[in-house]
Design a protein that fits this description.
The protein is α+β, with helices and mostly antiparallel strands. The protein has two domains: about 230 residues, Aminopeptidase (3-Layer(aba) Sandwich), CATH 3.40.630.10; about 90 residues, Elongation Factor Tu (Ef-tu), domain 3 (Beta Barrel), CATH 2.40.30.40. About 25% of the residues lie in helices and about 25% in strands.
Length: about 325
């Protein structure tokens, strides 16, 4: 399965079914055992040629999205974000809503009708609506009942010098890397956990952490690139095109120092483009693995992603390749 296919699947936190089905079908012929746990995680296990050691990779299947909470009397859908979304990037974007994937557009009060005070502030999600062309509340909720999910309606496209724009690059890049890793053969046992609900509190990984005897977990992620426009140099925590990002710390976890150094040295030895995340921002599933049961040795390998959590995120394919190269090299020598 390619990255395009993965990114164009819809799978917000709690609604990962389509992504899970596709991944399950892809991993079955590659693994010794595959199962789905109670959180909906896909746990794929591949026995090593030697055994004795057990390494886990983890990436989350879910993406940010929206959920319908009600409708106005004139048929506009009221909604809230699933995951961290800046409402400024949502206005005027096309979406697909509900099981029927009904086309809609996110709307706000036109600037001509806004007050001077309105123009000074960001309109929150309680001031935005999804317009599906319904004539009234009854028709709107008949097609898109409360609890329906909505997704950005964006295609995967390659552009520029090795760039890709798509929704859900966070974290389908990590899922794509794990699918590629499972095609290889390794001395150690390898488990790949495709987990749910990372965007709303690391919930899937919390369950997966209790259900593995691996003592080392490498989390494969996308992370915020800070190289745009007039962002000061000190805040450019990572940049697309410079290679895989190795994190020493973020708001959810602190990397195991020995593991962090092993990955840095290995990248240097193998000539794999890499960079250090120059900041302790964000958080990811490493926080769940590090703090459950007796704890796991963790480190995070991330692909720099511009405009993350928006409808049009951007990554460099060379960074995706670097993530795979370092993860594979580490698995081979583990």
């Amino acid at each position: 399965m390619d990255l395009k296919t993965l990114c164009e699947l819809n799978g917000a936190s709690g609604d990962e079914r389509a992504v899970r089905r596709a991944i399950l079908e892809a991993v079955k012929p590659l693994c010794d055992t595959v199962r789905i746990d109670r959180m909906g995680n896909v746990i794929a296990h591949k026995k090593g040629r030697v055994g004795g050691k057990h390494l886990m990779f983890s990436a989350h299947m879910d993406e940010i999205g929206f959920i319908i909470i009600d409708a106005t009397e004139d048929g506009l859908l009221e909604f809230r974000p699933v995951g961290g979304i800046d409402p400024r990037v949502a206005v005027s974007k096309y979406v697909l809503v509900g099981e029927k994937r009904i086309k809609g557009v996110i709307g706000a009060l036109a600037i001509h009708l806004q007050s001077a005070e309105d123009r000074k502030r960001v309109l929150g999600f309680d001031h935005l609506y999804i317009d599906i062309g319904a004539k009234n509340k009854e028709d709107a909720l008949a097609d898109c009942p409360r609890g329906s999910y909505a997704y950005y309606d964006n295609d995967y496209q390659e552009f520029g010098e090795g760039c890709v724009v798509a929704k859900a690059l966070d974290d389908r890049v990590g899922c794509y890397t794990m699918l590629r890793l499972l095609k290889g053969a390794y001395d150690a046992d390898i488990t790949c956990a495709f987990v749910t609900q990372e965007e709303v509190g690391l919930r899937g990984a919390t369950g997966a952490a209790f259900d593995t005897d691996a003592d080392t977990v490498i989390v494969l992620e996308g992370t915020t690139a800070g190289d745009m426009g007039n962002v000061p140099k000190a805040q450019r925590v990572c940049e697309p095109g410079l290679g895989i990002v190795i994190s020493f710390m973020d708001r959810a976890s602190i990397a195991n120092r020995e593991l962090y150094r092993q990955l840095m040295d290995l990248a240097q030895e193998k000539g794999i483009p890499h960079q250090v995340k120059r900041g302790a921002t964000g958080g990811n599933d490493a926080g769940a693995y590090q703090r459950r049961k007796e704890g796991k040795r963790t480190c995070v390998l991330s692909v720099p992603c511009r405009y993350i959590h928006g409808p049009s995120s951007v990554v460099k394919l060379s960074d995706v390749e670097a993530q795979y190269a370092l993860a594979k090299a580490f698995a081979e020598q583990f």
